[in-house]
Write a structure and sequence with these properties.
The chain is α+β, with helices and mostly antiparallel strands. It contains four helices and seven strands, in the order βααββββαββα.
Length: about 130
């Protein structure tokens, strides 16, 4: 397996931090935009899409600020790869943005960015943003 590279996406979104954090951190919120269904057992979130599933371990979170996961496949490899969704507020305009940090194989970064863009557009749609 080759090394993954870190990339970030900033996605402006018109909603409150509390509502956005709920969409990022609860099974019902995540199931509205990120996956078809989401289950939690302890600190492991299982995401289901079209009959397939992937699990991620919750690494850390801070209420109304961020949530950080590591895919179980990466967890088993003892890697430092993760994905994080962080809420940022512009201090001047008070505009809200979602910062996504993730890792992908170097030749798959564009495809991974496109997938996040698609998911985040769905989130904005669900929020009426």
């Amino acid at each position: 397996m080759s090394d993954k590279v870190k990339y970030e996406i900033e996605f402006p979104i018109k909603t409150s931090t509390k509502v956005l954090y709920n969409m990022l951190s609860t099974p019902s919120g995540l199931a509205e935009w990120f996956a078809d269904d989401v289950n939690i057992r302890g600190d492991v979130y299982t995401f289901m899409w079209d009959g397939s599933e992937e699990s991620a371990r919750l690494l850390t979170k801070k209420n109304n600020e961020y949530i950080k996961f590591r895919w179980m496949d990466d967890d088993e490899d003892d890697s430092s790869y993760y994905f994080e969704m962080r809420i940022q507020i512009d201090p001047l305009t008070k505009d809200v943005a979602l910062m996504v940090t993730d890792h992908a194989e170097e030749d798959e970064v564009d495809e991974a960015r496109d997938l996040w863009d698609q998911q985040l557009s769905e989130l904005a749609h669900v929020l009426g943003s």
